[in-house]
Amino acid sequence: MADIGKWVEVLAEAERRREPIGPITEGDPTLDLDAAYDVQRARIAQRLAQGERIVGAKLGLTSKAKQVAMGIDTPIFGVLTDAMQLDAATPLPLGELIHPRAEPEIAFVLGEDLSGPGVTAHDVIDAASGVCAAIEVIDSRYVDFRFTLADVVADNTSAARFVLGTTLVDPRSVDLTLLGVVVETDGVVSDTAAGAAVLGHPATAVALLANQMGAWGEHLPRGATVLSGGLTNAVAVASGHHLTMSFAHLGQIFLRSG
Ligand code: OOG
Ligand code: MG
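Above: inputs. Below: predicted complex with 2-oxoadipic acid.
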């Protein structure tokens, strides 16, 4: 049986020291997907004991672009805490991160609880108090972002930081499938996508998470922010970079590194 506590420590230490590690499944082939979610839960429990607060959840690997880039085609679920949220005006603290990458996402803010099973994309739209633009900054604790499905799940799906846009839009008032996004690095367009890139509709991703949580005996609470997954592949953020992510209807988010 996988040693959950050991892997929590190994991952926490990699994050603290900013020293990426090899895939933990290579050290322990018994670490399956269920055990990996146990590692993730135990690491989050450790963060809560250190004073952090859960503010939401995230999906990963929900777009073809991300699935192809990372070589894994199964959507994954992670947890967001208050310590991960950055103010749009705050430069990305490169000194606290290993090899950050940024990706544009559509975030849902829930006005009502969502409890699976049986949650549909329509239920998600009905439960949302709004959607907003988001940049997720991922920072794998593994060397070169090289991992299997179980590795990345254990690593809380590479979650590191996130920035939310300030415009909250009623998801009933826009067609999220057609919502365009343009990614610019230092003024040069590096990627483009539309909302449909995420599982055909980003609300489908949130429904998937609510149903998975139902199977775990958990639910998505009112007030939670849910990142529905990168619409494009992620871009590396190096010192002095300026990223601009522009979303139809939801506005722009700027990210500079410090
Ligand atoms: C895994 C996390 C993926 C997304 O939005 O697809 C993710 C990774 O790419 O390191 O957050
Ligand atoms: Mg992401």
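The first strand starts at residue 54 and ends at 60.
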